[in-house]
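A further point concerns the way the authors explain their paired sequence and structure data. Each protein is reduced to its one-letter sequence and a matching series of backbone shape codes. An entry of this sort, consisting of the sequence and the corresponding backbone structure tokens, reads as follows:
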Amino acid sequence: MRVLLQRVSKASVSVNGQVVGAIGQGFVVLVGVGHHDGEEQAAWLARKIAGLRVFEDQAGKFNLSIRDVGGAALVVSQFTLYADTRRGRRPAFVDAAPPEIAEPLVERFAGLLRAEGVPVEMGVFGARMLVEIHNDGPVTIWIERE
């Protein structure tokens, strides 16, 4: 699984003009699922993200986690994280898991993140979404677990 994590002051996701998920301070978590991903990868990523210290303490150092600051996560499925751009100008997505594998694993990941004490909002799997991100910092981190 691949995750692009963005620390945000606020974020939302809309489908057909309707907001389906919104958070204040926290993370936007763009999640990509590969063919060989499963429960182990999802659980590891949930633990990693819940404990990742990328929020500033009073001294301005990255010492606080999303739980420490009372933040939330906006989880959005993003198969394009598996884009292969090595050849040509049109990306290939053959390394992305098909929807019947990816959708339940993204849902499971969100549930595991909730179990780690992080409130979670979600996008709509497979929908065309408009994601509004107010990147804080900006802080953007790539996390991958094979």
Helices lie at 39-51, 99-115. The first helix runs from residue 39 to 51. The beta strands are 2-15, 18-23, 26-32, 55-56, 62-64, 72-77, 120-122, 130-144. DSSP finds two helices and eight strands in the chain.
